[in-house]
Amino acid sequence: MVFGEAELFERAAHLFTAGEPVACAAHDLYAWAVARQVSRPTPVDFPVRKLYRPAVLLDPVQARHVRELARMGAQVRITPSEISETLIFGERAAILAGDRSSGERSYSVVTRPDVVRGVTSLFDAAWRSATDLAVFEARFAEVRPLAPRILDMLASGCKDETAAKTLGLGLRTYRRRVAELMAVLGAESRFQAGVRARDFGLV
Fold first, then answer.
1. How buried is residue 197: exposed, middle or buried, by Cβ count under 10 Å (0-12/13-18/19+)?
2. Pairing of strands 106-110, 131-132
3. Where is the HTH luxR-type domain (predicted)?
4. Three-state DSSP class for 11?
């Protein structure tokens, strides 16, 4: 167990330069500052899998970086499901991010083969159910510019007719955009969409 990014970097930076397969699950690009210190969107000659939640695509800077990662050879997928922020280095080690309840974030660095295999199995399950970046972006292209305003309308509780008029959309178009946004967020109701939007830091 280590505490804070500085200690994690000191203990784990060498893992990023080992040239073995890397798998990363994160809510966004800011989740793993230690990775940002030793990793840039450069061509890769070993398997790299990156799993993110949809909020990463609503920030233009993060979205551009994620696309560049994919262009350089990393496999990138998006999932609206809950994920545990994790880094896996081949079969050698895994890092599990804890919470920030004590001020500094804690990290569990594990090297036991059976534990690393278990963590990898959980990552693989999340990976299989996720959507390729290009496919996800194609679905999200039309709703992305309106997403923050739609979320505001949903949070205000106003009627669809009022929201559509405020946004300059037809009623059917507005409802279709709401449905698309709910799909992107993996929400089954408008209330759940609002909850997930807060979880993702969108509102």
1. buried
2. unpaired
3. 143-197
4. helix
Other CB atoms within 10 Å distance of the CB of residue 8? 23
| Cα(2)–Cα(8) distance, integer angstroms | 6
Per DSSP (E only), the strands in the chain are: 2-3, 22-26, 48-52, 75-78, 86-89, 93-97, 106-110, 131-132
71 φ/ψ angles, rounded to the nearest 5 degrees: -65, -30
Residue 126: C-alpha distances to residues 78, 85, 119, 134, 141 (Å): 10, 12, 11, 18, 23
How far is 38 from 54, CA to CA, in rounded Å? 24
Give 139's strand partners: none
Give the mean model confidence (pLDDT) for residues 126-152.
87
Q: Which residues contact 12 (CB under 8 A, 6 or more apart)?
A: 34, 93, 95, 109
pLDDT one-digit tens code per residue, 3-47 = 877 787 777 777 766 667 889 998 877 766 544 444 455 555 678
Q: How far apart are CA 5 and CA 139, in angstroms?
A: 35
Task: Label the pairing between strands 86-89 and 75-78.
Answer: unpaired
Tokens of 18: 């080992």
* Residue whose token pair is 């081949």: 90
Distance CA 29, CA 61 (A): 10
